[in-house]
Amino acid sequence: MTGEQDKEFQQYQALDLKIAKALQIDVPELTMPELPDVDTPVVTALPERKRSMKPVWFAIAATVVLAASISVRMSSVFQDYDSLAEEVLAHIDHEPGALRATNVAIADDRLARAVPASIATYDRGEALITYAQSCVINGNTVPHLVIQGQYGPVTILLMPDEKIAAATPIDGEYLKGVILPVGRGSIAIVGDRDEPLESIKKNVVSSVTWTT
Amino acid sequence: MTSSSVQGKRRQRFDRLVTVFHQDMYRFAAWLSRDKAIAEDVVQEALLRAWKSLDALRDDGAAKQWLLTIVRRENARHFERRRLETVDIDDLSASQAALLAETPNEELNDLREAIFGLDDDYREPLVLQVLMGYSTNEIAEMMGLKQGAVLTRLHRARHKLKDGVAEA
């Protein structure tokens, strides 16, 4: 480092120290808002199994348990669709890039990285795509795109492995959208509650071709 | 595990995170909104939202960025229909002026005013880097920008601050 560079670096550090100090405003005491009850999954500890001296009762009990287990598994299959909508909302909530209102389009190569040919092709057409990432939804890697709508960012999740029977509404506190069945998979489209999604839905669905 | 003990553990986890990150949340909200009263509202909304979606946070190591992202979103929501493009430093509301509450250090006051006067696009990455300690790469990710754009904004922000303080 030359003397000039060294001096510049020191000035830069000194300015940053002052900025940091200026930014350290006083923080009022924390007032916790009233937190509502939230449904949480409850895991119940099963009582310890007792040894049975009567194999016939054991066989009957085992059958009942098996039937109950199948029933629970079946109900959880149906619940997956609901939880998919919730997972989509939760994902959007903590995906920082998705929250950015911008008019800067991403480059083609970034789009290609987020939507690999092994998953799908996406014809960007006239849409202003401002974000593209590979994300994990329900254990599968999916392309996460954002286009700019009239009321801000509109999130698009291409989910080739999430086959659904019918369109599933997504209804968040501030967001709304839908998961549409598209071919062997589905596509989630979520925007501001005031965002008119109809034309976006049509454009998105016609832009996507799953790779078979 | 009973329902109440699950709720109890959840609440303990939430309280722990909020205790650690509350100051960061508030300062970030204050510098984004440039208004102490709005910052308090934004933080309240952000805390509620974080509480409701706490189960989506799988790794507490990522909590700071997760909470700041929620603050960012709540702030954007607040200004959705009432965006303040520019604020005249001589015509501030009481809660805006409170952000610039004078300290005995004149140079610090000038710098605070200069930061207050920066465009949102410059002020936000500066706060994220200098106050929150994020790298330009992380800031780029949070703001949906290329790293080069973040570097440019940071450079311009510092340049404006240097000029602003020199002029004062």
Describe this structure in words.
The complex is a heterodimer of chains A (212) and B (168). Chain A is built from four helices and eight strands, in the order H-H-H-E-E-E-E-E-E-E-H-E. By secondary structure, chain A is of the alpha+beta class. In chain A, the strands form two sheets. Chain A has a six-stranded antiparallel beta sheet with strand order 2-3-4-7-6-5, with helices on both faces. A two-stranded antiparallel ribbon of chain A has the order 1-8. With 168 residues, chain B is mainly alpha-helical. Chain B folds into two domains: 1-85, Rna Polymerase Sigma Factor, Chain: A, CATH 1.10.1740.10; 101-168, Winged helix-like DNA-binding domain superfamily/Winged helix DNA-binding domain (Arc Repressor Mutant, subunit A). Chain B contains eight helices and no strands. The model of chain B has no long low-confidence stretch (mean pLDDT 85). At the A-B interface, helix 1 and helix 2 of A face helix 1, helix 2, helix 3, helix 5 and helix 6 of B.
What is the compact description of this entry?
The complex is a heterodimer of chains A (212) and B (168). Chain A has helices at residues 3-23, 55-93, 108-114, 198-207, and strands at 120-122, 129-137, 140-149, 152-159, 168-171, 175-182, 185-192, 208-210.
